[in-house]
Amino acid sequence: MADPTDYRPAPGTIPTDPGVYKFRDASRRVVYVGKAKNLRSRLSNYFQDLSQLHPRTRQMVQAAASVEWTVVASEVEALQLEYTWIKKFDPKFNVKYRDDKTYPFLAVSTGEEIPRAFVYRGPRRKHIRYFGPYSHAWAIRETLDLLTRVFPVRTCSTGVLNRHRQLGRPCLLGYIDKCCAPCVGRVSPAEHRRIVDDFCSFMSGHTDAVVKNITRQMEKASENLEFEKAARLRDDLTAISKAMQRQAVVLGDGTDADLVGLAADELEVSIQIFHVRGGRIRGQRGWVVDKTGDSFGRAAGDVDSDPALAEMVQNFLVQFYGDAVERENDTTGTIVRRGVDKDEHADLARVSPVPREVLVQVLPSDVEETCDFLSKLRGAKVTVRVAQRGDKKALADTVAKNAAEALKQHKLKRTGDLTTRSQALGDIQQALGMEDAPLRIECTDISHISGTDVVASLVVFEDGLPKKSDYRRYRIKDAAGDGHSDDVASIAEITRRRFLRHREDIRRVPGEDEFDGSRFRDEAPDIEEQSTDGRKFAYPPQLFIVDGGAPQVAAAREVFDELGVTDVTLIGLAKRLEEIWVPDDDEPVILPRGSHGLFLLQHIRDEAHRFAITYHRQQRSKRLRVSELDGVAGLGPARRTELVKHFGSVKRLKQATVEEIREVKGFGPQLAQAVHDSLHP
């Protein structure tokens, strides 16, 4: 039995979005599939005290060895994807139905003279169309109840149909217009067949035409003052909308498409593909591969502007669909040799693993060539494009989100367990020639836009894990007065402030001379340090990382020499090729791309960048809110903040009179008039 704490995801790494999750055992077999409105909330329930779990759940989490999840855009998609995976993997811990161990379908008996829609379980039969599977039989009945308002198809059994034929009057459904009553000749078999065809088309995902037609009829009835008919059609639209949710239709035009999403960092690329058939998500796959060629070393977040990723997309599409068609041909040949009904074989031949449309996040390097190749595989035209708007764009964003989540989880696996973290710290120690492993690592990063609104971050990792209580944020003011700053000078100031603060914290240690930091305090009045919890640092790091190359490292080294810091190893981590720059060394240290130490350094640098850019956005937002008040004599930061707080926004302040501005604390007649004049030039 496994211990669930061995594979429990790190705190805060599980998203709060709706999604579907899979538990796998040590052999990578799926043992349980579930869905959740909030993945973090649901999965945390599995990792509580084992004595509090249901016996079946306790057995499942002990049999599993890992957990993974897929984020979707809505609960409807989560429902559909969950049952797709249950049918695909047949997990032993999922609850099975007690009758024939199959999921219910909505079936339409197209082989009968008067087709019937009904709930069905069991093996598939000829001349019956199936829609589903559904989670429960009552879900099918609710769907039928909603759709028979618009498509009044027959739902009764053959016995009921024959009995009402003899009686010469319809059943209750015929009286309430939820059946067109072919049993008494209210419609002919041909007319009923057309209604059934429309019903099947709607269930196949072609919903847009039906919605547009009903909307047009409703508007026409309203224009003709036929309000009762318009109200009935409005209710039909409501029923259609609910039925579409029951069917888990994500694209209403019956789309057959594959959606490919990407997420990249400096070393690897995550690729996710969603298969949409008949407007529904039928499957999902994902890979994490190494970057190659010119794409190696490009910063994270540059997916849309990375030309090398276009080449990777083309190679992926060619290889993926080429292999899929080859496997399909082998399978079809086996089926033909075994002997299959000709009609069924024709249906198999029409089904191709290559869809009509491939929606990608980045266009392949040669779009026309890729389309021609895929068209030959399919035997019909295939389009490759980027989704621009609407439902397809929303679903494409969901696929990209899954790719980013997969890349994040892949990286966290390298730092998530003690053995891997220990190996990573050992790799760093060996590469830098340190006497001991760097159990405490600090990293700083600068964030600004064209040298304005400059801020910095300082993140702390202990034993390879973030220690957020020791994070620091710095706002760098403009000492020169030109509104700009540069990264090298900012790195020097942040380094000075951090280690000056540490010297002040330990200046009263017995046996050491008291450290006088007053002169440095006078030299660096343009830095404001903000701790995330107000506590002081307890001790210095063994390793201090600056984001940048040789110039940034040289600036930090000057500060180290100035303050007499000799017990801290200093390095710089450059983004392009993940080069490690050491002071007084003309050549960088290059760690192997698969090194656990490199991944840990990259993770620390990315966390510093995230923390810095978050603080930069906050400061920039504050400045923009009061930027229109700059230049007013006598109006400093405190009074500007008081103004915005009093009126709520600059927009409302513009609407205020001089008398209303004078009501703000600290504003006299002259200052109120100056503010009013500046806002109304």
Automatic annotation (TrEMBL):
Region of interest (Disordered), residue spans: 512-532
HAMAP family, per the entry: UvrC
PANTHER family per record: UVRABC SYSTEM PROTEIN C (PTHR30562:SF1), UVRC/OXIDOREDUCTASE (PTHR30562)
| Species assigned in the record | Corynebacterium mendelii
What Pfam families does the record point to?
Answer: GIY-YIG, HHH_5, UVR, UvrC_RNaseH, UvrC_RNaseH_dom
Residue ranges of every copy of the UvrC family homology region profile domain listed in the record? 259-560
Q: What is this protein called?
A: UvrABC system protein C
Cellular compartments annotated = Cytoplasm
Which family is it part of?
Belongs to the UvrC family.
Is the Cytoplasm keyword given for this protein?
A: yes
Q: What is the lineage of its organism?
A: Bacteria, Bacillati, Actinomycetota, Actinomycetes, Mycobacteriales
